[in-house]
Amino acid sequence: MSDLDPDALLGFDRDHVWHPYSSALVPSEPYLVESADGVRLRVRDRGGDVREVLDAMSSWWCAVHGYRVPELDAAVTDQLGRMAHVMFGGLTHEPAVALSRRLLDLAPAGMERVFLADSGSVSVEVAMKAALQYHLAAGRRRTRFLTIRGGYHGDTFSPMSVTDPVGGMHSLFRGVLPEHVFAPRPPAGVDRPADDPELRAWAEETTALFAAHADDVAAVVVEPVLQGAGGMYAYSPHVLDVLHDLARRHGALVVHDEIATGFHRTGPRWAGDRAETPPDILCVGKALTGGYLTLAAMLCSREVAEGVSRGEAGALMHGPTFMGNPLACAVAVANLDLLASRDTAGEVARVERALVDGLAPATSLGSVADVRTLGAVGVVQLHEPVHTAEVTAAALERGVWVRPFRDVVYTMPPYVTSDTDLATLTAGLVGAVAAVHG
């Protein structure tokens, strides 16, 4: 394949490679990336021209330091000199132990066990399985989960079942996916106080819903404060306090899905840090390896781990082939070291200020319904679905790679993006929206 020219590569891709959420009948038309360095991608456009463009997406929110990061490159190279992989059943190794120690040091209070998984979706699978086993071991057959509408937790079956039933994939898999309990989507706005009338009305409705299903609910599963793929929707941390209180009152566990929001993406290390009570189970991924390799983790309390282990099976019934992959663990440790060596919270605050300033002109566009920023997440929400291909092309012309979806054109840039590049990035997004949607 390395001998093929770009047109041949794209031709083979069109005929044989299946991209995310794409049709084999109407194939997607991806852009060919030749290389990446810093916060830039070297991309071949539709006309065959090669240009360097700013990555507004952090490669689906994981490349928080950008590309070709010397410290992360060195970690991978060093680990390759020892072993690329070894099974985790019956064996262990330094990178996995070191990573688990680091994660527990960083985790919310109460986390004591780490289960390493292959991807974010798998970590949610493991979390849900652990919650079910926890209750079964105690003689309680609780087989349902409660969540809020608008969420997204992954594309495998258990995470799909707690992903929004309208905007998600429930209708397509009706009759196969379990039917769980969906509370209303809370009112938007991170700064809503606990006594806000809309928030209080939401809490009353959710309280009644939880009570009606309390004997069946094993756990609450929620993306804290920011729903990512559900539309970059932000809500008050008081929502978490309500959900935590209801779970405690009715004997259910709480799972925080911090795959998209963890490691300072919304400002604090964990988005759930804004709430009063930590979760029982935490799922992390995406930024965990700095975008180098797929890796995720499920962390849980001692109570959950010991409760699961007292059951009939005597173990958490999950074990991926590539669990604890040494390469991924080694680069994850280096990534966490890099995050700790920098003022990451300060970097994210700087990015947030630049996004607020740079996206502000979008408020004057007739096509724009809302402009909002939370940490290193900037969103331009439209009144209509985004013309994805056209906005992507228009942004590329302005030197920016962006991948809009639904009705949002958004950015989650690498934390290390300079103020000058952030100005170019935000101008490119606003200009692309103006050019395509007006």
TrEMBL record:
The reaction(s) this protein catalyses: (8S)-8-amino-7-oxononanoate + S-adenosyl-L-methionine = S-adenosyl-4-methylsulfanyl-2-oxobutanoate + (7R,8S)-7,8-diammoniononanoate
EC number per UniProt: 2.6.1.62
Signal peptide, first to last residue: none
Record key words, sorted: Aminotransferase, Biotin biosynthesis, Cytoplasm, Pyridoxal phosphate, S-adenosyl-L-methionine, Transferase
Protein purpose: Catalyzes the transfer of the alpha-amino group from S-adenosyl-L-methionine (SAM) to 7-keto-8-aminopelargonic acid (KAPA) to form 7,8-diaminopelargonic acid (DAPA). It is the only aminotransferase known to utilize SAM as an amino donor.
Binding site residues for substrate: W60, Y152, K286, G319, R403
Organism: Phycicoccus avicenniae
Pfam families associated with the record: Aminotran_3 (PF00202)
Cellular localization per UniProt: Cytoplasm
Annotated site residues (Participates in the substrate recognition with KAPA and in a stacking interaction with the adenine ring of SAM) in this chain: Y21
HAMAP family, sorted: BioA
Protein name: Adenosylmethionine-8-amino-7-oxononanoate aminotransferase
Self-association and partners: Homodimer.
Family, similarity comment: Belongs to the class-III pyridoxal-phosphate-dependent aminotransferase family. BioA subfamily.
Residue numbers of N6-(pyridoxal phosphate)lysine PTMs: K286
